[in-house]
C-alpha cells in the first residue's frame, strides 16, 4: 500500500491529512497559518509538520506518492501561484518550492477547485461524471469537474462563479469592487443582506427584529419556525439562488450540482426551497441536473489535493 | 490520403462538404431540407447526396473515414437525438441510422457545438486550447471547447448560453417561454428590440425613425454614420453583451472567446464597443480572455462535424 498527503492552506489554519492510495483518510490535523512576513513561514511549517508526522508514525518514505496542496488564490497547472492576498503571497512556483522543502512530488490547485475535486471523488458528486460544486459560505466559490478533470481555466479562474453578475441594478459594492455579483445575494452574507433589506422595507413583525447581528442560520431557523418575514426573505433568497444555478446549468449542463458551505447546513429545506425557482429560470433542455448537498465538510480540500497527487503521480 | 464528409442539417438547407484528412475543404454544396412527414426524408436525402458525390467524383470508398453530422437540437455522445423541433424529429439514433443508409461510420453533434469545434480547429479559435464560441444570430447559440473536446453537457445542453437570464425584470417573453434571456438582448433580433425601445422612449431624431423593419445592420450602419440615437442603442447593446460575456468568462475562463453570427459582421466596431463593458462587469481574475471574430462563416458546422469524425475514427 502507498500513501500521500493532502494539504489545504487557508487564511487562518492549514489542514493536513494522510491518505492511503484508495483514498481512505487515515489521519488529519491542523496547524496555524502564519501570514506575517509575507507568508514566508507557511511552506516551511507545512514541510516540518509532514516530516514530523512521517517520523512519529514510522511512515516509509518510499511509499509516499506525493503531497497535494490547495491555495486560496489562482494557481496554474505548473504550480505557479498568482498572488494569494490572504496569505501575503506574490507570484512563485509552490509545487517546486514545497517539493524542495520535503523531497516529495507536489501538485498544487486552487482551494475551491480542489474542494470540488474532493466532493467529486468521495463526496456528494461521487458516481457522477460531470459536476459543478457551489460553495455558499462567507462568499460564493465554485469548481467544475468534467470527466474527472477540474476546469482550472486559462488564467486559473475557472469556476469563479461567485462574481457572475446577478442583478445589474445593484447599488452596493461587492468585495471585488463590482456591483450585483452572485456573492452579494447567494452567500451566507447575502442571506443577511437580504434579511436586512426585507426588515427595512416591511412593516411585518418578526422574531428577527429582536436580534442583533442576524446570521444566515437565524433566518433559516426563523423560517423553519414559521416566521412570516423570514419565509419571505427565504423565498427571495431561493429565487436568487435558483436563477444563479439555472445560469450555471445553461453553460455547463452538469450531471449533478453539489451545494456546500455554511448555508447548506439547511440541507433539504434549501433544496426544496430553491428547486421551483431553478425550474422557473432554467432553459428546459438544461434542467436535467440533480442537486446534492456536499458530504465532506472541511475535509473536501484535503481529499481533492490528494486526488491531484494520485492523478499526477499515482 | 483519406477523406470524409461533413454534414450540417439546418431547418431550410443541409450543407455538405468533402474534406481531406488534413482538414482541407475540397468541395461543398447544399440540398434542401425536406421537413414534411416528420422529417423522414432528410437522412435518405443526405445518403443519396453523398452516394452521388462519391460516384460522380470517383471517390475511393475505402479511403472514406466517415461522415460527421450536425443537428439543430440536443444529441448525446452515442448519437441519440433528443427532438429537433425545426425538423419534426423525435428521439432516435441518427449515427446508427445514417450509418446504415450510407455504409460509413457516422459521428453526430449539436449544430452549435460542432460550429464551435470547427472554429476551434480551423477558424477564430485556431491555436488556442480553450474557447467559448458565441453565435449572435437570430438567436444566441454557443459552444465550449476545452483541450479539443466539446463540452456537450450531461443532457446535450452544454453551451446553451443564449438562455442564461440576463435581466430578471424583463416583461416580454423569450421564444423559450422564459423572460430576460440573453437571446432577447444580444441576438440580432435583440439589437432590433433594443432599438425599438430606445426609439419609443427617446424624443431624439434619428435616421432609424424613417425606416420600416429596422435590422441589426441598420443600427450598426447608422451608428457608424454618427446617428446619435443609434449610438445610444449600440452602447446599451454593448453593455448587455459585455455583461453576458463577463458571466461566461467567470464560469469557463477560456483563452479565447470567438464571436460569430450575423451581428459579427460589425467586426472590430463590435469588439471595440463591447470591450469596456466586458471589463466593467467581469471579475478581474477572469478577465484574461482574448476576443476574436469567427472566420469560417457558414462552413463552421461542416468543418466541425468532419473534425468529430477525425477524432472518433481518424
Largest interface: A-B, 46 and 47 residues
How is the biggest beta sheet of chain A arranged? 5 strands, mixed
H-E string of chain A: EEEHHEEEHEHEEEHHHHEHEH
Treating each run of at least 4 consecutive H or I residues as one helix, how many helices of chain A?
10
Let me know the average pLDDT of chain A: 95
Please tell me how large the radius of gyration of chain A is. Answer: 20 Å
Fraction of residues in β-strands of chain A: 15-25%
What fraction, in percent, of the residue positions of chain A are helical? Answer: 25-40%
Report the end-to-end length of chain A measured between terminal Cα atoms. Answer: 12 Å
Note the overall shape of chain A: globular
The overall strand count of chain A is: 12
Structural class of chain A: alpha/beta
Question: How would you portray this structure in words?
Answer:
2 copies of one chain form a homodimer. Chain A is 38% helix and 23% strand. The first copy, chain A, is built from 10 helices and 12 strands. In chain A, strand 5 (80-84) and strand 6 (89-93) form a beta hairpin. The first copy, chain A, has a 5-stranded mixed β-sheet, with helices on both faces. With 314 residues, chain A is α/β, with parallel strands linked by helices. In chain A, helix 7 crosses helix 8. In chain A, 54% of the residues are buried. The longest helix of chain A is centred in the last third of the chain and has 25 residues, at 228-252. Chain A is globular. Chain A starts with a strand and ends with a helix. At the A-B interface, helix 8 of A face helix 8 of B.
Amino acid at each position: 500500500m502507498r500513501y500521500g498527503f493532502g494539504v489545504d492552506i487557508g487564511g487562518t489554519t492549514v489542514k493536513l491529512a494522510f491518505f492511503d492510495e484508495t483514498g481512505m483518510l487515515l489521519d488529519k490535523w491542523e496547524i496555524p497559518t502564519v501570514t506575517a512576513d509575507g507568508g514566508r513561514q507557511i511552506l516551511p511549517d507545512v514541510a516540518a509538520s509532514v516530516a514530523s508526522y512521517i517520523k512519529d508514525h514510522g511512515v516509509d518514505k518510499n511509499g509516499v506518492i506525493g503531497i497535494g496542496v490547495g491555495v486560496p488564490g489562482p494557481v496554474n497547472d505548473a504550480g505557479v501561484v498568482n498572488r494569494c492576498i490572504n496569505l501575503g503571497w506574490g507570484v512563485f512556483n509552490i509545487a517546486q518550492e514545497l517539493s524542495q522543502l520535503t523531497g516529495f512530488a507536489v501538485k498544487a490547485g486552487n482551494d475551491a477547485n480542489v474542494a470540488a475535486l474532493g466532493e467529486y471523488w468521495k463526496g456528494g458528486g461521487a458516481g457522477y461524471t460531470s459536476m459543478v460544486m457551489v460553495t455558499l459560505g462567507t462568499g460564493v466559490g465554485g469548481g467544475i469537474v468534467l470527466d474527472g478533470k477540474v476546469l482550472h481555466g486559462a488564467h486559473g479562474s475557472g469556476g469563479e462563479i461567485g462574481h457572475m453578475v446577478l442583478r445589474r441594478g445593484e447599488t452596493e459594492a461587492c468585495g471585488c469592487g463590482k456591483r450585483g455579483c452572485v456573492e452579494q445575494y447567494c452567500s451566507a452574507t447575502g442571506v443577511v443582506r437580504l434579511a436586512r433589506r426585507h426588515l427595512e422595507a416591511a412593516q411585518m413583525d418578526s422574531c428577527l427584529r429582536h436580534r442583533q447581528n442576524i446570521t444566515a442560520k437565524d433566518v433559516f431557523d426563523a423560517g423553519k419556525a414559521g416566521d412570516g418575514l423570514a419565509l419571505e426573505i427565504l423565498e427571495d433568497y431561493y429565487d436568487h439562488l435558483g436563477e444563479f444555478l439555472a445560469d450555471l446549468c445553461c453553460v455547463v449542463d452538469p450531471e449533478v450540482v453539489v451545494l456546500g458551505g455554511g448555508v447548506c447546513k439547511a440541507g433539504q429545506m434549501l433544496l426544496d426551497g430553491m428547486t421551483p425557482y431553478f425550474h422557473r429560470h432554467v432553459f428546459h433542455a438544461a434542467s436535467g441536473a440533480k442537486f446534492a448537498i456536499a458530504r465532506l465538510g472541511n475535509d473536501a480540500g484535503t481529499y481533492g489535493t490528494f486526488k491531484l497527487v494520485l492523478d499526477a503521480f499515482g
